[in-house]
Design goal:
25% of the residues lie in helices and 24% in strands. It is α+β, with helices and mostly antiparallel strands and 440 residues long. It has a domain at 176-404: Alpha-Beta Plaits (2-Layer Sandwich).
């Protein structure tokens, strides 16, 4: 059967097995890779055989006083929110879609809009159980099998299959976000605003990546905090402060034709989006859904890119090179006329994990439809990213070259050695790990 991930590229013929407790993956034929919701963009969870964690989807224990949750790794963020927001708890770190599994989130060591203040998911995972290639199950935490714990967080499923996880949830008083949205006329103004609002827990900027000259980097910065009861006192929200947002999603029923998405549609969208807010600043209380998961409101929005598929290019650049690096990369993109509907800039705080993506700096994510000229152009951008001391996010990648990985992930050697020791026959493999020559 053919399978693909969120970018609908590549599409591959593979067998998907559903994991059942007691199953020993060493009995599977050939190579295999753990799979969650398939929300990584490229080929990280594609391979000869894919072992789906989704059948393991139960909550196992929850301490209402401390917020410590134990859940199976096939539980999704959507399950988590629906169950725990009404009880006053929120995931400590959340990606921009709620349709990911906990296992997938661990394997990518996901970050959210709060990395600069609260780190990535790894900062909040207390422990997990990991099924190795040979069928052994190990308990991993910062003090038990610590190297394996670190390698699995961001290890893209290559160390084994996470079966369950113990996670520290975050207390909230309301399900609303106190939001502050500020328009920036260009990249410099945006970078200044990021610095000015660095104390706020959540921040993210949408950028018009086709704007040039003194408008380059014009954007909306949105910063927010979980609203407190005191803040919403006297408003209509006060009656049911932990109310779940209504479940309304608009389906995209078909793949759009390739011509539907071109620079004119992107320019028009960017113009309308930038000007949707008339004033320089706006403050409001909004349900968490629209703030954290705006794209989830369009079900299967990946079809907008048509059957050719698309990829997301996400890189991070250290702060000392941030302004210069971003300016140069964005200039190249605008000159090339490669527009992206989604161009999102965030900041990262310090982090130095084995294979995790975040490291202190600025991160930009851009969606591009797959075309013949795209990959050679992204190779050029890779060179720039590497020259500025940055790296590419593996969970979004579908085309990076092994040399780029080698150059930009300094602990790759340690990771490869650990994989060889754990799984001498290297039976756990994805299309990505083979492309990046992680098993030599
Ligand atoms: C719209 C959208 C927005 C996103 N926003 C963000 C964001 O803001 N921040 C961010 O960090 N990421 C973001 N992502 C990426 C997404 O969070 C990751 O790709 C995540 O890993 C997907 O989880 P999944 O369950 O779909 O796993 P899959 O896509 O199926 O797999 C992803 C990786 O996890 C491994 N894996 C899956 N389950 C397990 C398991 N049980 N044990 C071990 N390994 C496993 C797979 O082998 C693979 O390497 C976004 C993705 C989308 C589509």
């Amino acid at each position: 059967m053919s399978h693909s991930n969120w970018g609908n590229y590549p599409i591959t013929d593979a067998t998907e097995h559903r994991f059942q407790p007691g199953m020993n993956p060493s009995e599977l034929n050939g190579y295999w890779i753990p799979r969650g919701m398939g929300r990584c963009y490229g080929d990280s969870s594609l391979g000869d055989s894919m072992l789906s964690i989704l059948p393991l989807n139960r909550f196992l224990a929850f301490d209402e006083t401390t917020g410590l949750l134990k859940a199976e790794a096939g539980v999704t963020y959507a399950d988590l929110l629906e169950t725990f927001v009404p009880k006053g708890w929120f995931p400590p770190v959340t990606p921009g879609t709620k349709f990911v599994s906990l296992g997938g989130a661990i394997a990518s060591d996901v970050h959210g809009k709060n990395h600069h203040k609260e780190g990535s998911l790894s900062s909040h995972v207390r422990s997990f159980e990991l099924l190795l290639a040979d069928g052994r199950i190990l308990h991993c935490s910062p003090t038990e099998n610590a190297q394996l714990f670190e390698a699995t967080l961001g290890g893209m499923g290559l160390t084994g299959m996470v079966l369950n996880v113990t996670l520290q949830m975050k207390p909230i008083e309301t399900s609303l976000i106190a939001l502050h949205s500020i328009k920036a006329r260009n990249l410099d103004e945006l970078m200044d605003l990021f610095e000015q609002y660095n104390h706020v827990t959540y921040s993210v900027a949408w950028i018009d990546c086709l704007s040039k000259g003194n408008k380059m980097g014009r954007s909306h910065l949105t910063v927010g905090e979980h609203a407190s009861l005191e803040q919403i006192a006297g408003t209509k929200h006060a009656q049911n402060p932990l109310k779940l947002p209504p479940k309304k999603a608009i389906p995209i029923p078909i793949y759009f034709p390739n011509f539907a998405l071109n620079n004119l549609t992107i320019k028009t969208f960017n113009f309308l989006y930038y000007n949707r807010q008339f004033k320089k600043e706006k403050k409001s209380f909004v349900p968490y859904e629209g703030f954290f998961y705006p794209l989830d409101m369009l079900l299967d929005w990946n079809r907008i890119y048509g059957k050719r598929g698309f990829t997301q290019y996400q890189f991070v650049i250290p702060p000392e090179n941030g302004r210069e690096g971003m300016r140069e990369i964005m200039t190249r993109i605008a000159q090339k006329g490669l527009g992206s509907f989604l161009a999102v800039l965030k900041t990262f705080g310090p982090q130095d994990s084995m294979m995790g993506f975040p490291t202190k700096g600025y991160t930009l994510a851009l969606d591009f439809p797959i075309t013949k000229k795209l990959f050679p152009f992204l190779d050029e951008l890779d060179e720039l990213v590497a020259s500025y001391g940055g790296r590419i996010y593996l969970t979004k990648d579908v085309r990076m070259k092994p040399e780029m990985l080698e150059q930009t992930y300094p602990r790759l050697g340690e990771f490869k050695a650990l994989l060889k020791e754990l799984d001498p026959q290297q039976r756990i493999r994805s299309m990505q790990s083979e492309r990046l020559r992680i098993h030599e």
